[in-house]
Amino acid sequence: MTYRFSAPPPLPPLPYVASGRIPRPGNGQRPASANGHAHLAQQGGRPHATDAMHFRNVLGRFATGVVAVTAIDPAGGEPRGLVANSFTSVSLDPPLVSFCVAHTSATWPRLRTAPRLCVNVLSEQQEHVSRRLAAKGGDKFAGLTWTLSPGGGPVLDGTLAWIDCSLESEHVAGDHLIVVARVHDLDAHADQGPLLFFRGDYGRFHT
Predict the structure, then answer these.
(1) pTM greater than 0.90
(2) How far apart are CA 82 and CA 3, in angstroms?
């Protein structure tokens, strides 16, 4: 199996100390620990976790799937949606899932009032769907085809799976909300490869 991404070139690796090789004092490196494990070096003042770009670059090395959270806006009857790559299962009993939403999202306040949400697991053919729902302004569903799930949420054509759920709780976590949702129904939909997100870009899983 191979992974193929249209991602930017990798950053140069941080210098490190191989186990058992003790650097000379004064060269900016920290020696290996007494138990033989290597330490990352501190040459040049390595960025801290509070450096937003460094944080994003490092955490971007964790590949994730992409989901579209959709609902019918109770206020106007129009479909609404946002994308997230922070989706995860939380509990089997009761069945719970979660995803994270930025405080700045203009779509989440509309979605959260809907009696049912639908999580769409996006396929490798749905990069355009992700980009459209992530954009600001305009009719995000223009040109997209969808049907209603049993719970009444939009299921986008080509989605790998859909999950009908309702808002269970919200937890403030820094500049995001952690949304926990209770699952009421779910099923597989299309049979393709997943849409992946890695190092700030989209990719596909190839066998």
Answers:
(1) no
(2) 26
